[in-house]
């Protein structure tokens, strides 16, 4: 397969939410590398709280106990390193979800051994790296400055200094805390981790975050590029995305809300304009849902309307806005429910043939190769705008795609600047070593006729020509 676009050129990402490390490694080799993914966002790898009394919820991960990678519910440090190496071998980067704003909250127990056995209580984490050499104590938190929950969300100082959900808030203005966080993230880069999602970035002053990531190694071993940093910022009138774009990319929640509503409403004419007025494309991470919005703001998810949601994620990979990030979920009925697991809360290996793991990314086939082949090409619209539920686009002369959010097949012809030839439809199949396992479509004399399935897409690009490319 052709190599994926670089992180800063919008190389497509998939979030394998809660997957075990060995399952991620296997998926890199079996599916992600061959289908063009640039990277996987993995769940937080550091030691976390273990909340048996709450049924081992997924959000244990967002309460760090130490920065040890051994042992989380997803595997050991050796498993983690093996995943980084095997994904590298498949051409796929690992992006780590970096929980650096806070440590634990009160939760169901409030203290205890963490997943790797480290003793802790709120504001006291005595052994951060398993060598007894460094810890956090009360002075490393904003207890004297605030020490209570955020109440006034219109006050940026409070949002950044007080506690999010009662989680012990790190004094990221202090040199020791900054150096410790840089040491944690740098140790991951040294292992070959190629990027970070900064959790709760809005809850840290930009200058603090800049100081933390400014100390990272300039080049990722195994990749000839700097670590890619993107920040989770749910912007509002008090805190803007532009405060963070100088540090790295930013998650664009306006795009997320816009794309979700447009596709849920079946209004693909509205989908064309999603992203207008939002962050510049090259500063944005774009997505249909993340692990929080699929629970808290379920406009369009795998649970509300699977076909339409798949179509929205396919559109995301063709649209050309931002760095596209696909969500891949496990099934759940309650928001707090953890992933498939054994009796002690250890996560089960992923099996995409079982309903417990939704594996939405598999339904997108080789759409990430479309994002790669069309990187940097502006989008133009080919349909006449007369059909609310249907739209067709072109990305320069590198890619053509049509989307049909209706219950009837859409048979249509378009003039296209794609070169003449036979193309693999990467929305319906994969393309590897010149072989297409989906439908093929002819471009002849500068035009193309497509039969777009009900609630489906057709996507053609110059990196997936079956013949006629000479
Ligand atoms: C995030 N981004 O800024 C994550 O995307 C989001 O998933 C995290 O919340 C949050 N910030 C903190 O990293 C998740 C759950 C929360 C959970 C929290 C800590 O959505 O529900 O809070 O992780 O585990 C839980 C309880 C709270 C309690 C808190 C502290 O739900 O009621 O106050 O733990 O004990
Ligand atoms: Ca903070």
UniProtKB/TrEMBL annotation:
Keywords: Calcium, Carbohydrate metabolism, Glycosidase, Hydrolase, Metal-binding. The keyword Metal-binding applies. Its EC number is 3.2.1.1. It comes from the Bacteria. It is an enzyme of class 3 (hydrolase). Its cofactor is Ca(2+). It catalyses: Endohydrolysis of (1->4)-alpha-D-glucosidic linkages in polysaccharides containing three or more (1->4)-alpha-linked D-glucose units. GO terms for molecular function: hydrolase activity. Belongs to the glycosyl hydrolase 13 family. This is Alpha-amylase. The chain holds residues 44 to 513 of 626 of the full protein.
């Amino acid at each position: 397969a052709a190599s994926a676009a670089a992180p800063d050129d919008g190389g497509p990402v998939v979030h394998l939410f809660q997957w075990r490390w060995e399952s991620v490694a296997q998926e890199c080799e079996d599916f992600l590398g061959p289908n063009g993914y640039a990277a996987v966002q993995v769940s937080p790898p550091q030691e976390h709280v273990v909340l048996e009394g709450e049924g081992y919820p997924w959000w244990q991960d967002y309460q760090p106990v130490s920065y040890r990678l051994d042992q989380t519910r997803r595997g050991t440090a050796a498993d983690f390193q093996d995943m980084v190496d095997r994904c590298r071998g498949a051409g796929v980067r690992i992006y780590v979800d970096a929980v650096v704003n806070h440590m634990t909250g009160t939760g169901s127990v409030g203290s205890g051994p963490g997943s790797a056995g480290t003793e802790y209580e709120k504001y006291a984490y005595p052994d951060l790296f398993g060598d007894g050499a460094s810890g956090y104590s009360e002075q490393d938190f904003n207890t004297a400055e605030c020490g209570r929950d955020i109440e006034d969300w219109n006050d940026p100082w409070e949002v950044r200094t007080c506690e999010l959900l009662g989680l012990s808030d790190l004094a990221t203005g202090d040199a020791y805390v900054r150096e410790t966080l840089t040491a944690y993230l740098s140790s991951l880069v040294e292992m070959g981790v190629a990027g970070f999602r900064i959790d709760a970035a809005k809850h840290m002053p930009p200058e603090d975050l800049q100081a933390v990531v400014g100390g990272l190694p300039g080049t990722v071993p195994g990749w000839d590029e700097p670590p890619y940093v993107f920040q989770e910022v749910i912007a509002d009138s008090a805190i803007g995305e532009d405060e963070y774009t100088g540090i790295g990319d930013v998650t664009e929640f306006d795009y997320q809300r816009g794309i979700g509503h447009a596709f849920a409403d079946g209004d693909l004419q509205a989908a064309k304009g999603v992203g207008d007025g939002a962050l510049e494309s090259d500063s944005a991470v774009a997505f249909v849902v993340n692990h929080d919005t699929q629970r808290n703001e379920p406009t369009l998810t795998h649970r509300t309307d699977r076909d339409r949601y798949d179509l929205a994620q396919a559109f995301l990979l063709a649209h050309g806005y931002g760095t596209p990030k696909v969500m891949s979920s496990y099934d759940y009925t309650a928001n707090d429910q953890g992933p498939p697991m054994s009796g002690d809360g250890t996560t089960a290996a992923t099996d995409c043939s079982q309903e417990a793991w939704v594996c939405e990314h598999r339904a997108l086939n080789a759409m990430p190769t479309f994002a790669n082949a069309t990187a940097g090409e502006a989008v133009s619209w080919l349909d006449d705008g007369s059909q609310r539920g249907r739209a067709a686009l072109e990305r320069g002369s590198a890619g053509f795609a049509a989307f049909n959010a209706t219950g009837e097949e859409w048979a249509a012809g378009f003039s296209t600047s794609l070169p003449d030839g036979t193309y693999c439809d990467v929305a319906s199949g994969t393309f590897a070593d010149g072989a297409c396992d989906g439908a093929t479509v002819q471009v002849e004399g500068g035009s193309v006729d497509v039969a777009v399935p009900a609630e489906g897409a057709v996507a053609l690009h110059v990196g997936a020509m079956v013949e006629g490319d000479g």
